Structures are given as C-alpha cells and as structure tokens.
Amino acid sequence: MKLKLIISLMCLVGIVLIGNKYLFNSPNSPLTIESEHVQSTLSTVKPENFSQTKPENKEEKTETPVQSNLVSVAENQLEQQNEHSEFVTDPTLFSKTFVFTDNDQEFVSKSAIDNVFKMNTEQLFNNISKVEYSEEAQIRENTLSRFIIDELKDVNVVDQQIECAGKVCAVEMIYTEGNLNSINKLSTFTTNYAFEQFIDLENGDKKLKALYIATEDPSQLTLAME
Asked: What is d(CA 121, CA 72) in angstroms, rounded to the nearest whole number?
C-alpha cells in the first residue's frame, strides 16, 4: 500500500515538472504569445499610420481661414495705403518724410532712405520734380552744381542729374575715372546727412547715387526705424 502511494506521488511530481517545463518553454506559452502579440501590434502600427491618425484635416481647416484672414488684412491695408498715399508736394512736408524732430532731437527715416535707393533714377527725379518750388531747395541745388564744377575738376563726369526739394537733394553721377577723394567730398557742399551708393557699370564706368539732407550737425545722425 505504501509502495503504491509512493509510486503515485512520484508520478504526480513527474507530471507537474513536465507541465511546468512545457508551460515556460513551449512556443505557445502565454508569455511568448503575449510577446509576439505586442510585437505584432507594434509592427502593424507603422510611423505613417501615426501621421494618418493625426487630425490633419482639422489643422488644415483652422490654418486656411487664418491665412485667408492675413491676406484679407494685407489687401485692406494696401488699399487704405493707396487711398492715402497722395504724393506730398509741399516742400516742408516732403522734407519731413525724410527728416523730422521729436523732443528736440532730429531723426532720419530709414524707410524713406531705403525707398530712394530701391527706386529707379527716372522715378526718383520725377517725384522730386513734382515738389513745389522753395528758395531753400533752389539755393541748395545751385550750391551743389557749383561745387561739382569747382571741386570735381579731376573727375571725368560723363553724365549727371541733380534735383532738390526742400531739404533734400538727389544726385546721380556717371563718371569714367577720377580722384575718389574729390568725389567723397561731394557731400560737403553744405552740412548734410549723406547717403551714397557706388556702382560699377558693365562698360567700366562708375555711378554714384546719393541723397543729401540738410542738417546743422551731421554727426548727430539718428535713424528712425519705423
């Protein structure tokens, strides 16, 4: 009887050991299946699927009206600017578009200067010529013309244009050769804020495009960054 019981217990232990080995080492064990299931799940959710599940349509719907609104605002601002952008012909007001005083300090408008050098020569001189006559402008133009004759004798000037309105004088000069020091003195025909651009032309000539604005003290130049 005891022998049968011992045999039975030994058989039971063997079955349990075999069962445990099968449970943890069999490819079909729950842990292995769970691992394979997780890997399978991750492998099927590819990166492109993540982008597809993002609410792209919602973002597009919210971005589109914003862009449209910006365009509309820009167009409205442009229309308003065009409606109120009548050219200033008064010499005092024209000067103030370039140089103005605030709290007893003089400022030069950077945007106005930038616009001049972006503008082609014909348009620039055409605009200045529309400004009404002023004695100040006439004196400055005469002084500048005389200065070129007297002080730039060592410069071979091919062509030149001069136009003054209010405190502002514009110059375009084309020359083949000459003393650069003489050309650099051009801004001293009176006391001026001087803005100059030198360009090498394809034919070898040089071009000076300059804007001179009357001031009492050019060393105090302060640009207004509108």
From this structure: 33
Neighbours of 102 (CB within 10 A): 9
Give the residue from 177, 187, 176, 174 showing the smallest Cα distance to 147: 187
Whole-number pLDDT of residue 55:
39
Contact 198, 208 (CB under 8 A): yes
SS3 state at 183: helix
Judged by phi (left if over 0) then psi (alpha if -120 to 50, else beta), residue 201 lies in: beta
**Spatial strand order in the sheet of 99-102:** 99-102, 105-109, 223-224
Which token pair is 18? 């075999």
pLDDT in tens, 68-127: 343 343 344 334 434 445 679 999 999 999 999 999 999 999 999 999 999 999 999 999
Q: Of 111, 96, 98, which Cα lies nearest the Cα of 194?
A: 98
Span 164-190, pLDDT tens digits: 999 999 999 999 988 889 999 999 999
| HSE value, Cβ hemisphere, 13 Å, CA-based, for 48 | 0
pLDDT for res 225: 87
Paired tokens of 61 = 């719907």
Torsional sign, CA 124, 130, 132, 134: positive
The 8-class DSSP code of residue 1 comes to -
